[in-house]
């Protein structure tokens, strides 16, 4: 995704549209979440009532995490940083243009994973920015902007990488050997490993989400016009929740700003039970639903 212009957001009013209910029509679906507004150049926290409780400027953010200490870990176009709720920088790791960073992840050992496009590498760094491990990835795409989007280190220490331009999700072992390639018919934004071993994949401008099993067979998918009122535009960040539902960031760039809800939660039988629609939020490319995730 190239950077696009979004008018400055001068109003922090947030509208959460509730679409349906759960638990026998007794409790409205609500979520608090972190969000990365790629086009608006900021990240923010939204509570369950739909109010923005914190925001921070970041150039083209793609990945965002709430750390155990309450700080925020985020990626921006040229790096990764940890910031406090008081908006002071704890540490920052940067790269030089034309390289780009589109993904980051806190690791169990206290280090951090950074996906660096250009050299097309996974780098693990400590809190001082020292590189403690480098994994070279496979790509045929030369343009750094098109090499990859979201990457994740898995619980088995492998790496799962969405190779955007190559239209593939690739899994690499600890030493960087590619051990699996899932070829797709769209530009891959992200691949997430689910507890059952399946892989959930978002396919950007192919307007599609697929879930594949360990033989790469598609076992579930959402296509562009499957969900009434929620046409899939650029399928971006996702989360599989503990209840089996999937939350999707329906990025509005590439000509679709304001034409559909920015976030929605869909059941396995393709019913939308929650959505966020507010043009003032700009273009949400990724999110982190707080406290209800079930994907690696």
What does it look like?
- This protein is an all-beta fold and 296 residues long.
- The chain has one domain: TolB, C-terminal domain (Neuraminidase).
- Helices cover 1% and strands 44% of the residues.
- The chain is built from 1 helix and 27 strands.
- Strands 1-26-25-24-23 form a 5-stranded antiparallel β-sheet, with no helix packed on it. It has a 4-stranded antiparallel β-sheet with strand order 6-5-4-27, with no helix packed on it.
- A hairpin with a 5-residue loop joins β11 and β12.
- The longest helix has 4 residues, at 144-147.
Sequence-ordered SSE layout with sheet pairings:
Elements: E1 16-17, E2 21-22, E3 27-28, E4 33-37, E5 42-46, E6 52-57, E7 64-66, E8 72-76, E9 79-83, E10 89-94, E11 100-106, E12 112-117, E13 121-125, E14 131-136, H1 144-147, E15 151-153, E16 159-163, E17 168-172, E18 178-183, E19 190-193, E20 199-202, E21 209-212, E22 218-222, E23 234-240, E24 246-251, E25 263-266, E26 272-276, E27 284-289
Antiparallel strand pairs: 1-26, 2-3, 4-5, 4-27, 5-6, 7-8, 8-9, 9-10, 11-12, 12-13, 13-14, 15-16, 16-17, 17-18, 19-20, 20-21, 21-22, 23-24, 24-25, 25-26
Can I get a quick summary?
The protein has a single domain (16-289), classed as Neuraminidase (6 Propeller). It is globular and about 45 Å long. The chain has one helix at 144-147; strands spanning 16-17, 21-22, 27-28, 33-37, 42-46, 52-57, 64-66, 72-76, 79-83, 89-94, 100-106, 112-117, 121-125, 131-136, 151-153, 159-163, 168-172, 178-183, 190-193, 199-202, 209-212, 218-222, 234-240, 246-251, 263-266, 272-276, 284-289.
């Amino acid at each position: 995704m190239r950077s696009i212009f979004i008018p400055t957001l001068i109003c922090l009013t947030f509208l959460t549209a509730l679409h349906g209910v759960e638990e026998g029509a007794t409790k409205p679906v609500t979520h608090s979440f972190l969000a990365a507004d790629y086009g608006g150049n900021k990240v923010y926290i939204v509570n369950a009532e739909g109010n923005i409780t914190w925001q921070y400027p970041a150039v083209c953010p793609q990945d965002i995490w709430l750390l155990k200490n309450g700080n925020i870990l985020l990626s921006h176009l040229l790096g990764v940083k940890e910031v406090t709720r008081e908006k002071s920088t704890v540490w920052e790791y940067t790269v030089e243009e034309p390289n780009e960073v589109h993904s980051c992840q806190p690791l169990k050992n206290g280090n951090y994973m950074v996906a660096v496009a250009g050299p097309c590498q996974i780098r693990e760094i400590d809190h001082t920015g020292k590189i403690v491990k480098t994994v070279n990835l496979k790509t045929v795409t030369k343009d750094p902007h098109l090499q990859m989007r979201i990457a994740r280190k898995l619980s088995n220490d492998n790496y799962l990488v969405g190779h955007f331009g190559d239209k593939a999700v690739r899994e690499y072992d600890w030493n960087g050997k590619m051990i699996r390639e899932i070829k797709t018919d769209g530009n891959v934004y992200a691949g997430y490993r689910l507890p059952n071993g399946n892989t959930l994949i978002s396919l950007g401008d192919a307007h599609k989400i697929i879930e594949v099993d360990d033989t790469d067979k598609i076992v579930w998918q959402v296509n562009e016009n499957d969900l009434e009122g929620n046409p899939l535009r650029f399928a971006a960040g996702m989360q599989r929740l503990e209840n089996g539902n999937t939350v999707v960031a329906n990025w509005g760039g590439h000509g679709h700003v304001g034409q559909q809800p920015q976030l929605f939660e869909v059941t396995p039988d393709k019913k939308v039970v929650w959505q966020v629609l507010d043009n003032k939020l700009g273009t949400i490319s990724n999110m982190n639903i707080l406290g209800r995730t079930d994907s690696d």
